[in-house]
Each structure stands twice: as structure tokens, then as C-alpha cells.
Amino acid sequence: MESFYWTAVWATLNNTKSLSTTKQEEKWKRWLDDSGAHARTAVKDGIKQVAFSNESRRECSPFLAVMAPMLQKWWELLEKTKFQWENEWADVEDGPPLPKELLFHKFAYEVVPMYVELLKGEKARLQAFSQPDVAA
User: Fold this and answer.
1) How do residues 43-86 score in pLDDT, each as one tens digit?
2) Model's pTM, two decimal places?
3) Quick one: which of 131, 129, 109, 134 has its CA closest to 64?
4) Are 33 and 43 in contact (CB under 8 A)?
5) Where is 27: in which H helix or E strand?
6) How far is residue 10's CA from residue 78's CA, in Å, rounded to a whole number?
């Protein structure tokens, strides 16, 4: 479930529309190439800082500044889902394959609509970034 999130983080950090990136963002890109949990935690914590700090948003690339609040909200949704997943997985972990597959599908069908609703809520902000400035 988290792989989709990390793909979005990678795409955000490697977005070519952002003409400049900070040294910190370059470090995060390298850390994402390291599949270690410590590296991912550091990137996630950095995104959280950008999401909640106006100063951090001013100091990062424009696309990360736009994406960080959404990525943070998404991570929080995934954390809640992960807790539920772990509780339900314990009930099927030692059993046959079919209940495991059904549980996976149940959570996949719950997480995708949550992501879509999150995107709907962020639509105006994301579109404002992607639209050329018509007033210029």
C-alpha cells in the first residue's frame, strides 16, 4: 500500500518542472534510492516539515512546496490504514492463501478511494500550480 505513496514522493522530487531543487531535496532523492527504512523515515519527516512550516516551503522547490501538504495527509491516512491492516492480517497470517488475498483486495479497494478523495480536496491547489499564469 505504501509503494504508491513512495512512487509519488519520487515523482515529486524528480519533477522536471521544478527548475531548482535544494541540497536537502537532492539528498532525499539519494535516500529514496536506498531502500532502507531509516532513509525513507528521514524523507517522510522532511516532507512533514515542509508541509507544516511556511519557512520550509519557501526554501524548497515549488513543486515540493505544493505537494508536501497532500503527501503528508496521504501518509496520515496510510498510517491509520496500516494499523487496521496489521490487526486484520494477524487473523489470516498463518492461514490459507485465499483469506490473505481477500484481505489485500479489501484494503486496496479502501485505500484507492481515500486517495481519490484526497486528490479531490487538493484539486484547486494542484491545478493552480500546473496552470500557466494567465495574468502575466
Assistant:
1) 999 999 999 998 888 888 888 988 999 999 999 999 989 889 89
2) 0.81
3) 129
4) no
5) helix 23-33
6) 17
